[in-house]
């Protein structure tokens, strides 16, 4: 999902290379598919489409954790409605599941501008996710300035709608938030630079909504799922390395988890509704995406860890929040001290401790009422899918 800092780019030769005026390359890969953007059907029976013109979608962050699932959920939903879609990904890494893959950086306005040409809907999911380790300037360059580039290009090229992937972090202030909904105001002081950058970006997206460009914000809660680079990976890595010997905070503290497949499904529903519904009820609004009741973060992870054959610290082995906060502060100070010589990214930071020691739960039916959203995957189905993924090769976590 990080469209600024990816990994090694694919060695596959690009079919087209376009250079911006400042020398940044946006590599566009043509992914072999049918012209209508669909995968080959399992049967030879033809699918009759009500519209032979594909809905052209630009997905920023298409090669990321959420982005890959958005592609599969959008394709399946569109096909079930006899709708053609053509998906172009923009990310630092090539995305082979998209119809086109633009390899470039969203902080480069010329790259974004080129990727936005001939697009109907933008799903802006690219972001730099961080909990206290990355300099504010980098976070704002990606999350805020990158969003501004997307909005500007969308206007310039006549894009019909823009769907922005937000986060529940934008309302966090370091204290408990119980049974909140979309009326919850932004805090006077944000939890960290990541939360602030995402809040400022979503506000610009909402202000941009008008008859020329329809916009909507979907706020994901604490996502987990297969190939989860955030929660699942960090917890499993700590367990395997013997570094998770205690819990943090009270066992009564709850956290709002959501399965990545359901977040992707909500994006697919919104992407079609925002261009097909007249008038669209979701434009200019923000929505939390949830799929189950909030529960304790450590209890939630314990079920996965123990089913995978590892030991998990019991609830009785927990350190108080204030002690953990001091440890988080010390970790950040040490990481900053050694930064010139060693790039250290501590998992335990002030932000992560604040999240783990203060309850957050969402109580909203707005997405269901306005969009007809209901989770596609039950908590049991999501658990089984994630467990099967990590059971196959937990070393990949």
Written account of the structure:
The protein is an alpha/beta fold and 397 residues long. It has one domain (16-39, 50-392): NAD(P)-binding Rossmann-like Domain (Rossmann fold, 3-Layer(aba) Sandwich), CATH 3.40.50. The chain contains eleven helices and 15 strands. It has helices at 65-80, 109-115, 136-156, 193-207, 231-240, 260-276, 297-307, 321-337, 350-357, 366-371, 379-392, and strands spanning 16-19, 25-30, 55-60, 85-91, 100-103, 121-124, 161-167, 177-180, 214-220, 222-224, 247-248, 257-259, 286-289, 318-319, 360-362. The strands form four sheets. It has a nine-stranded mixed sheet, with helices on both faces. Helix 1 (65-80) links the parallel strand 3 (55-60) and strand 4. Helix 1 packs across helix 6, helix 2 packs parallel to helix 3 (136-156) and helix 8 runs antiparallel to helix 9 (350-357). The longest helix has 21 residues, at 136-156. The model is unreliable at 1-27 and 29-50 (pLDDT under 50).
How do the helices and strands line up, and which of them pair or pack?
Blueprint: E1 16-19, E2 25-30, E3 55-60, H1 65-80, E4 85-91, E5 100-103, H2 109-115, E6 121-124, H3 136-156, E7 161-167, E8 177-180, H4 193-207, E9 214-220, E10 222-224, H5 231-240, E11 247-248, E12 257-259, H6 260-276, E13 286-289, H7 297-307, E14 318-319, H8 321-337, H9 350-357, E15 360-362, H10 366-371, H11 379-392
Parallel strand pairs: 3-4, 3-6, 4-5, 6-7, 7-9, 8-15, 9-13, 10-12, 11-14
Antiparallel strand pairs: 1-2, 2-5
Helix pairs in contact: 1-6, 2-3, 3-4, 8-9
